[in-house]
C-alpha cells in the first residue's frame, strides 16, 4: 500500500509539471533561490576557521543552560564588551527545543574580552526596566547586538512576551549604563513578517538601524521615536539576506555579516553567512560569497569588530555554544570585489 501511494504521488507530481506551467515556474524559482542561497556554482561554502591565522575561542560560563549567540563591541580601552544569551527552552540536535519550564525565561550575560581572546564574565544584563508584566519584554530579550554610539554602549535585541505556546517578538533598542538598561525604545510588529534581527549601524549621527539589508530599510531614533526613513517592504519571496552583526565603519563604507535564508539538509538547519557592504548612504553595494565559521550547520553571527589589523567575529553554534573568531583582514579582503573601501 505504501509503495502504491508513493507511485501515485510521483505520477501526480510529474503530471502537474507537464500540465501546469505555474508548477514549472515554481520549480525554477525554487531552484534559482537554492543556487543563489548556496552558491552551488562555487561548491559548498568554505570554513573561515580554515583561513591561515584564524583562531577560535569558545566562551564558557557557569550558567544552568547553554550560552550562545554572543555579541561584541569595542570599549575604547583596547578590550571588547559582549553579551551571550541562555534560556530554559533548550535546543537539541539543532532541530528540537525542549521546554524545561512552562514559562519562557531568557537571560543575557555580559563578558569582557581582550584582543588575545581572554574572557571574563561580569554578570547578567540588568533588564529590569523592560522586564515586567505586560511589557513586550516580559520574558526577556533575545540575541542582543551591542554597538557604540557617541561613546555610549547601545544594543538591539528581540523582546519576547510569551503568549500560550507562542513567543512573539518586538525589536528593542536600548542604551546601557554599566550592566543596566537605562533607556529603551520598542520597535513594531508587521503582520506576516517576523520583525527580528534589526541591524544597528555604527558611526552615524543618530542611532540608526537597518530593518532590511537589501533593499535597505533605514530607521533612525529621532526625538525619542523610531522613525522609518525609507519605504522598503519585505519581499513576498523568502528574504535571502537576514540580519546578523552590527554594520561597522569600513573606510567610507559599512561592513556587516549577515546570514542567508536557512536550509534544512539531512534533518539539520544550515545558516551560511556572508559579508555585506553598504556605502555611506546605506545603499547595498556588495555581498560576498557565502561561508561558514567553524562547521556546516546552524551558526548565527551577532558581533563584528576590526582591531589591530584583525577581524573579530562572534557567533553562536547550534544554539548551544558561543565562540569568537579572530582572523587576519586578508581573509575578508579576498572575499570582496573592491580592493579598498
The top-level CATH class is: Mainly Beta
Helical residues, percent: 10-25%
General shape:
globular
Looking at the structure, the CATH topology is Tachylectin-2, Chain A
CATH architectural arrangement: 5 Propeller
**Main sheet specs:** 5 strands, antiparallel
Evaluate the radius of gyration.
21 Å
Mean pLDDT: 85
What report would you give on this structure?
This protein has a single domain (49-333), classed as Tachylectin-2, Chain A (5 Propeller). Helices cover 12% and strands 43% of the residues. The chain has helices at 2-19, 21-38, 329-333; strands at 55-59, 73-74, 79-87, 89-92, 96-99, 106-114, 119-124, 141-149, 152-160, 169-177, 180-186, 199-201, 208-213, 216-222, 225-228, 241-242, 248-250, 253-260, 263-265, 268-270, 273-278, 284-287, 299-307, 310-317, 321-328. Strands 16, 17, 18, 21 and 22 form a five-stranded antiparallel β-sheet that branches.
What are the SSEs and their pairings?
Elements: H1 2-19, H2 21-38, E1 55-59, E2 73-74, E3 79-87, E4 89-92, E5 96-99, E6 106-114, E7 119-124, E8 141-149, E9 152-160, E10 169-177, E11 180-186, E12 199-201, E13 208-213, E14 216-222, E15 225-228, E16 241-242, E17 248-250, E18 253-260, E19 263-265, E20 268-270, E21 273-278, E22 284-287, E23 299-307, E24 310-317, E25 321-328, H3 329-333
Antiparallel strand pairs: 1-25, 2-3, 3-6, 4-5, 6-7, 8-9, 9-10, 10-11, 12-13, 13-14, 14-15, 16-18, 17-18, 18-21, 19-20, 21-22, 23-24, 24-25
Helix pairs in contact: 1-2
